[in-house]
Design a protein that fits this description.
three-stranded mixed sheet, 32% helix, Rossmann fold
């Protein structure tokens, strides 16, 4: 079995790689990533990419068709990954998240790939009043990131069929410890703030709703999607991924963290402009289809996971919002030193000479590298 994982060097990728290697021990696992966040490690004992057969570095906007030959499944994680980055790089978000995703899917289908798994997002619901949103409900994407997910889902639906099974996983907001930790996620931010500053500052009035999912449970859902037969949900399937008990208001998340970390003050900005991103989500479809792969981590466990992980790192940076654990900061820093162009392409000096990247992994044979 051969599986390609794009965006494997991000926050979710290490969990997905570890899961795929555990459940498919003999598989050929191929990573493909631009490498923006490759250095944002939390000092893991094992380099996450060591579990891969090969790692390719390259640009999703120029994905090489050759590595798709003989591939059974593509797990597509690569994206400009949150609202602040999408706001600053709106055109690039649509180009990378939408157009490049469809280009990859078209190439994958032509190469005979059987399963295409797309990491979408519950943020497509935007502002959703009333009851929990189901997959067939109207969408209300409020950001470039959310719009890119909607457009990709719509175009993937047109490609599905003829032996090409597409699964769009609308993930809840991610949380939890990772070898490439992000602290620009709501629960992760709250735990880091509680540990380092003994206070949690809620930038909204605390009332918006968010569904959450632990990153390890995202990897479990991805395994299900890779294994999914088209007779179980159809050639094209969109599913909200999470569980009903993980629909929380932002202030409830802060309160849960404060119960787990002693002497923490919660500060709510009662004068803040309303956060229009507020939605509860129904996970009935996923619950029915994905028995055996449903989320196992609860909120308390996720908080403990983050707390233990940060303490093991001896993490004490109360100014972490200025650090590279905030993905937008990393991109800005790379642009500031001239490593990334305004189009988020690597500068020529990065992809030449001493900085040239090569494939690494379990295979003893060099697989070559595809550069941007």
């Amino acid at each position: 079995m051969k599986i390609i994982i794009t965006g494997n060097m991000g926050y979710v990728g290490p969990h997905v790689v570890r899961r795929m290697r555990a459940v498919f021990p003999d598989a050929e696992l191929i990573g493909f990533d631009m490498g923006y966040f490759a250095q944002c490690l939390t000092a893991p004992a094992i380099f996450p990419e060591c579990s891969l057969t090969a790692q390719y570095f390259g640009d999703m906007r120029r994905f090489p068709e050759g590595i798709l030959q003989g591939t059974d499944a593509v797990i597509h994680l690569a994206a400009i990954s949150n609202d602040p980055m999408g706001a600053l790089f709106e055109d690039l978000t649509l180009a990378i998240n939408h157009r490049s995703s469809i280009d990859l899917a078209q190439k994958a289908k032509q190469a005979g790939v059987k399963s295409f798994v797309f990491a979408s997002s519950c943020s497509v619901y935007g502002l959703a009043e009333g009851g929990p949103r189901q997959e067939e409900d109207s969408l209300n994407p409020l950001t470039a990131y959310a719009r890119s997910k909607v457009q990709t889902e719509q175009d993937l639906a047109k490609l599905a069929g003829s032996g090409f099974t597409v699964t769009c996983l609308r993930f809840s907001t991610a949380c939890g410890m990772s070898e490439r930790l992000r602290l620009d996620l709501v629960l992760n931010d709250f735990v880091a703030s509680a540990l380092t500053a003994r206070r949690i500052i809620i930038l909204s009035d605390g009332t918006p709703w968010r569904p959450l999912i632990h990153v390890s449970d995202m990897a479990r859902a991805i395994e299900w999607a890779v294994r999914r037969d088209h007779r179980d949900g159809g050639q094209f399937l969109t599913a909200n991924v999470g569980c009903d008990s993980w629909n929380y208001q932002v202030k409830e998340l802060a309160e849960a963290v404060a119960r787990m970390v002693s002497n923490v003050e919660i500060i709510i900005n009662k004068n803040a402009q309303p956060d229009r991103r507020s939605y509860r989500v129904s996970f009935n479809k996923f619950t029915k289809l994905a028995q055996g792969f449903l989320p196992e981590m609860d909120l308390q466990g996720a908080i403990v996971d983050l707390k233990n992980g940060l303490e093991a790192m001896q993490f004490r940076d109360a100014e972490f919002r200025n650090s590279e654990y905030i993905r937008l900061n990393t991109l800005k820093r790379l642009q500031a030193v001239g490593a990334l162009t305004e189009n988020l392409e690597w500068a020529s000096w990065v992809t030449a000479g001493e900085y040239r990247t090569r494939s690494v992994g379990r295979s003893s044979q060099a697989a070559g590298a595809f550069l941007s």
